[in-house]
Amino acid sequence: MSPTSRFRMLRNGGAQQLSAVPVVSAAEFRETVLRAAHSGLRLSALYARPAKGKTGLCAVLADDAEGVLYVLFSEATDEFRSLTADLPQAHLFEREIAESSAIRVDGHPWPKPVRRSLPDSAAFFREEGAEVHEVAVGPVHAGIIEPGHFRFQCHGETVHHLEIQLGYQHRGVEALLAAGPDKRGVFLAESISGDTAVGHASAYCAALEALAGVRAPLRGEALRAAALELERLANHIGDLGAIANDVAFLPAAAFFGRLRGEFLNLLMSLSGNRYGRGLVRPGGTAFDLPKPMAVDFSARLARGRTDLLAIGKLLFDSASAVGRFDETGTVGLRAAADLGLVGLAARASGLDLDVRRDHPHGLYRFRHIPVVKGETGDVYARAMLRYLECLRSLDFLEGLLPDLPGGPALAPCPAPRPGLIAVSLVEGWRGEICHVAETGRDGRLALYKVVDPSFHNWQGLAMALRGGEISDFPLCNKSFNLSYAGHDL
Amino acid sequence: MNLTLTALCAHLSALLVLPPLLLGIIAKTKAAFGGRKGPPLLQLYYDLFKLLGKGAVYSRTTTWMFRLGPVLSLATALLAGLLAPLVGAAPLSFPGDAVFFAYLLGLGRFVTAAAALDAGSSFEGMGASREVAFASFAEPALILAVAALAGATGSLSLGAMFSGALWRSFGAGIVLVGGALFLVMLAENSRIPVDDPATHLELTMIHEVMVLDHGGPDLAFILYGASVRLLVWSSLLVRLALPDAPGPYGWAAWGAGVAVVGVLIGAVESSMARARLVHVPQFLVVAICAAAFAVMLSLR
Description:
The structure holds two protein chains of two kinds.
Chain A: E1 8-10, E2 14-17, E3 23-24, H1 26-38, E4 42-51, E5 54-63, E6 68-74, E7 79-81, H2 91-100, E8 104-106, E9 132-137, E10 149-155, E11 158-165, H3 173-178, H4 185-190, H5 197-212, H6 218-246, H7 250-271, E12 280-281, E13 284-285, H8 291-316, H9 319-325, H10 333-339, H11 343-348, H12 355-358, H13 379-400, E14 420-427, E15 432-439, E16 445-451, H14 453-465, H15 473-480, H16 484-488
Chain B: H1 5-17, H2 19-33, H3 43-52, H4 64-83, H5 97-118, H6 122-153, H7 158-161, H8 167-188, H9 216-241, H10 248-271, H11 280-298
């Protein structure tokens, strides 16, 4: 029996009847998920769902080699034996299940709330010893960033352990989205993480379209992809600037900051908002890109490429800056795979995964982006990958814009059909965004689950610091640049 | 030494008024390299003025040590400024003042670190530990540089050592000492590549993190004291390189020299990244070696 034979298969942006998804006992659910994960599948989502008046579980596993997703439900249950010890990528998912549902997760190695009822300081992992000291940072930080608490156990400058406690920005996004579908849904999706407005809105709209059984017109899908790549460019370039700033390499920091603005301005021209809000709507995109504008975009992108190449050379040819990146904050291939890292952070460690290639949806079915991956898993790999991904995105856009498909950009998106589950994956600039939607008998949403790439990757940051220097933390943090809001939902 | 009243007034006003301007020059240089306009040249004056008008908040865990730190660090900086020759002879000068000068700087560092430890915060303890650890590499370099100049001039007074008259007899030594002193100056004044004066990231800071808990006039004292120290260091470099000429021409040459040092610091900060913390000692060992070679040359 193959490890996936118990699951129901579906594709990215597809829907299945809820009744067609197998329901197994909690014990069998655990064994089946474990077996599938150990055969090479990745846990994209694991959440509690209502089952016959009580609570059951749902697992969504991604098979990146075959480009398919597998779904499995468990029967209603009161307790569940933790997967984490055997499957570390389930770590945060199980803590989330324990805090948000009636299910008791037994045997979890670090049972703590994720984002609700934040614990007092006694609950942090603590190292004892005469020369060990503890450093606590946040949730209020010196810079203008989101709130999060970081607890370091150090021996001198060496970090032995870092515990990251988030949850300060919990807004109840999933519950608000599950009250839909309504007009505000897409606005909520755009604000899950403000720097990934296009990514989350695309995932939300793809889920709604799957539930309705329609596809956005090809031109709309092309414009979504264009906006997604512009978002990636703006954020990657902004991050490169922030990384340069953290090692105090000032010219690169200033020039990257300026260049980020150019790509934000392109998004502004496309959508009327520098962060791409208001563009992606169920059924396509709210705005079209007329031919003269597309020509203008191409010219601006060409200028952007010239500048990017020059600044990239400045940064990566600087021995002092590269020396600072090398072997700082390393996450090995094995650790990255075990923790279930996604997106850029995973590729930097040598994992070969990218939703745009592995689970293509929308325009990515027809136009491909070569996946770039690193080997070293350090700050250098994450910085270099950002730079290379920018160049790939520019190639993609320069091919796409003169050759946009015809037809309308927006088509009506009817109401969802009842009794379905839909999964949509989008490769946002941080990595895999996973939205899972279920509809009830009335055709309204019954459940909405959001997994931001940051949810997978925060643990990677904690591991990157192990054995490193505490003074390297800000640099490592910038090289990941994870979302607090996306994690806290 | 004979010191006219005019020369004394000139020395005092340069020492008291000009230091913040030097930081303005550095900031402008960095902005120019980054393609930015940058803060006004006189920004630090505005900041000091603002801070002096503020009240101070003291944590309940702090003691008198915390309040003594800023005062003593400024006092040692100013006293060091009276020993160091700017143009002509220094107001205070006696045989062995070079050693006194080095220890004044050490005392300033000691009180700053002690005040930081007094705050009882994990950040400040970390900063104090880094500062003192790196100082143990910076101080030998300074002492060796002074020893080289003492060997070359046969005098233990700063005025004789930094007279700009050694090029003919001790040229290679001057280059080595100047290089060593420049590196030590970058370290002592928390500049890139040792420290990043512009960062807001408390985990990476060395000097800045020690003064996180100081505010209002205390912070003004610290910032002003730091700028005085930087001016004194720059002045030593200028006096090492330029021949001394009293009067307006001497002051013009000195001013231009100090401005060049400021631009040089700004250029260094703009052209390289900050070193990894564990590599800072290596950086300072270079300074120690350069100064040690200068000592050997002076023994010929």
